[in-house]
Amino acid sequence: MGLSTSGINFSGLVSGMDTEALIQQIIQVESRRKTIWSTQQSQLTQRLSGLQALQAQLLGFQSAISQVTIQTAFKTATATSSAESVARVTATADAIPGTYLLEVSQLATNHKIGTSAQASADTALGLSGSFVVNGKQVTVAASDNLRDIAARINDAKAGVTASVLSVSSNEHYLVLTAQNSGAVNAISLNDLGSDNVLQSLGLVSGTTSIKNAITNGAQSDKFADTSTAIGTLLNLSGAPSGTIQINGVDIAIDLSTDSLNSLVTKINNAGAGVTASVVTVNENGSTRYRLQITGASTPTFTDNEHILETLGILKAGYGNELVQAKDAQFKIDNMSLTSSSNTLTNIIQGTTITLLDADATNPKKTTITIARDTGSVKNAIKGFVQAYNDTIDLIKKYDYFDTETYETGPLFGNATINALTAELMAVVSDTVAGAPSDMSMLAQVGITLDPTGSGKLVLKESDLDNALNNRLGDVERLFRVMGSTSDPRLTYVIATGKTKATGTPLTVEITQVATQAQAVASIAQTQASTATERLTFNGTLFGNREYSITLNAGNTIDDTIAQINADATLSRYLVASKDENGRLVLTSKQYGSKAAFTVVSDQAAANNNSGIGTTVLSVQGQDVAGTINGEPATGDGQFLTGNSGNATTDGLQIRVTATTTGIIGTVTVTRGIADQVFQLIRRFTDSINGALTDETKTIQQQIDEIKQRISAFDEAMQRRAQDLRAQFTRMETALNKMRSEAQRLAAIMGQPSLLSNLGA
User: Of the four listed, 152, 220, 453, 643, which is most buried by Cβ atoms within 10 Å?
Assistant: First the structure.
C-alpha cells in the first residue's frame, strides 16, 4: 500500500520506491535560491552589527569630547594649605589663582552656658513660668525635671541645643549650646514676669547691664514695626507688664498692649530726663525699628519684671558661662579680618577655608595656594585622544582586507565608513580658524597623526604639559567653541553646531535697545500715609497670576520703597525706587517684551499714598533688535540670536546691554578641534538624516526583506512537498489497484504464474 493518513507517510509500499527521499531531493534542488538569500542575510547582519558597534563607539567618543569642551573643563582649580593643621582649603572653578598668607589668632566659638549644679536630672524641680531664649518663649511646669526643660527648649527651635550633663550621681547641669558660632550668635536669655525660672536654674544671674549701648543711652532689639504691641511682635503669651524706672522715675508699661510708638510717648511724658525715639535700620534689605533712650548721660534703668530685658534695652548676666561666643580673628596677606564662623566662603573668590587652629600670641600660619588644575584638563585631553584611537581601532575591526587570504571585513569598502574616517583624520589635522597661528593645530600641543599610517593619534605629553602650563587659554581655544566681543556692551553667550565659526569678527548692529518695564506713579508721596494701601500686580512678569502687597499705615515714600523691595515675591520681579520728582517708580528686573506687568491701588492717587491710583497701569519692556554680520537676528530681552537658516550666524547668541542704537562692535567665534569632531559625529549619527543612521536603516530594511522572502519561500516549499507527496500517493494507489485487478484476472484464468510475472 502507498497511502498517507493523518500526516503519516508510507513511502513506496506498492512501488517499492523511497518516495520521501525523492521529495526531499527535489525540495533541496529547488531551495538553492534560499541558500543564496541566507548568505546575503548573514553578510548584511555582520555589516549591521559593525555599524551599530560604531555608532555606540561614537556616542562614547562624544562623551569623552564633552569632558574637554564643557565650560568648566579649563577652569578647575586646586587648593592647598601648607599647614593643614591650621586650615584646610577647597576651591571651585570660580577660584582665582594666587598665593595667600593666612595667620589665625582666634577661632570662632559656639556660645555655651550652663545651670548651677542640680541634685537630680529626673526629679521635678518645682519651677513654673516662662522665659525667652533667642526670642522664643519657653514655658515650664512645676512637674518638669531637668531633662523635661531641655526638651522644651529644644522644641522651641531657638538656635540652641539643650542637653543634660551628669558629672556625678548628684551633680547635673543643663547646658545650652548655640548652634552657630560667633559673637553675633551669643545666646540671649531673659525671664518673663516675676517667675525667674532662668535665675532659679542659675542660667542667669540677678544682675543686668545695658544690652545695646549707644552714646548716652541704650537702644532696644530690632522690631518689625512701630505700631503693633511688642508682645504680639514677639509672639509672647502673657507678655510682661509692670513698672520700670528710668533715672528713678516710675513708668508703667504693658508689653501686651504697648507698641514702640506708645513706649516713646510714655517715656517722653514721664519726665525722666531722657528722650525716647524710634529709629529705622536696614537688616538684609528689610526695614527694622529700634527704640532709643538717651539723656545727658547714660540713664539708669530698673526693671523688676524683665520688661526692659524683653525689649533688649537690658540683658541679664550669665550665671555659668562655659564658653564665650567669639568671632574668628585672622589675617589674609596682613589684612585683619573677623568672621562669626570658622568656615570662610567669602574671603577668596571660589575658595572655602576652614580654620582649625589659632594662637593669640603667635598666630598660626599657613600658605594658601590656588592654582589651575591642569592635571584634570590633561586627563580630559588624553581621554579625547584615547576615544579617537578606540574609534579608529573599531573601524579597522570591520573594515579590513587581508592581502594573504583576501578576506575582507563586513564594512570593507563601505562609502559611509570611508567618508567618516577621512573626515575624522582631516579635522584632527586641520587648523582652528581665528586661533593664534602658533597654537591653531593639535600638533602644536603634542598631538599628531601616527607617522606609521595607522590613522591613530599620538600624544607627546611633555609638549602638552608645556602648553597647559604656559598657554592654557590658547589650548582651551584649540579644543572648545568660544566667542569674544570687541565691546563690553556685548557678551558672547553660545554658538550652536549650525553657527559657522569663521574666526573673523562679525559686526553687530543694533536698531532697538532692550528696555525694562517701568511703572511711574502719577503723584509724588510727600506725606506719611494714614491708612494701609493695597497694591495689586499681574501680567506676564508675574506668570499672569495676581499678587498683592499691603503697604503699612504711616509709610513714607521711603518706607514704601523699602517694604516693596523687602517683599520676598516682589523683589524677585521688580525694584522700587523714586524719580527726581519723588514719585514711586516700579522697574522690572527682566528686560524685554516678556517683562510686562500691571499695577493698581485700592486708593485714589494722593500725596499721602503710593500715587499709583485706581486706574490700572500697564507697562511692558522691549526686546533688543538688530543684525549680526548683516544677517537677521531675533531679540528676547537683552539676548540677540541669529535666525535659523542664516549662512553664518544660525544659533549664535549674544547679550546686548547697549543703551544706544547703531554699530556696537563685533563678535568673533572660533570652533576648536574637539568641538569640530563632536559636530562631525553628530552629523553622521543624526537620528533623522545622519549617514550612519541612513546606512543602518537601509541594511535593516534589506535584512527584513530577505527574512520575509525566505519565510515565504519556506512556506512555498512546504506546499510543494505536500503536493509531491499527494502525487506519489495517487501513484501508489493506482499501482495497488492494478495489482488487485491482475490478481482477480489470474484467479479467473487459473494462471497463478501471471501474478508472479506482475510481481503480485
Answer: 220
Q: Nearest Cα to 630, choosing from 652, 648, 653, 656?
A: 648
Q: How far apart are the C-alpha atoms of 26 and 21, rounded to whole Å?
A: 9
For 185, the grid coordinates are 550668635
In the numeric block, which cell numbers belong to residue 476? 582651551
pLDDT given for residue 751 in this prediction: 65
For 6, 188, 371, the CA distances from 231, given in Å and listed in that order, are: 102, 17, 55
pLDDT tens sequence across 674-714: 999 999 999 999 999 999 999 999 999 999 999 999 999 99
- Burial of 365 by CB count in 10 Å (0-12 exposed, 13-18 middle, 19+ buried)? middle
Which has the closest alpha carbon to 598: 620, 577, 579?
A: 620
- The three-point CA angle 452-454-455 to 5° equals 115
Taking the whole predicted model, whether its pTM rises above 0.90 is answered as: no
Three-state SS at 577 = strand
Q: In this structure, which amino acid lies at residue 483?
A: G
The SS3 call for residue 174 is strand
Cα 556 to Cα 475, 550, 553, 757, distances in angstroms: 58, 14, 9, 137
Which residue from 157, 164, 171, 154 is spatially nearest to 114, judged by alpha carbons? 164
pLDDT at 2: 41
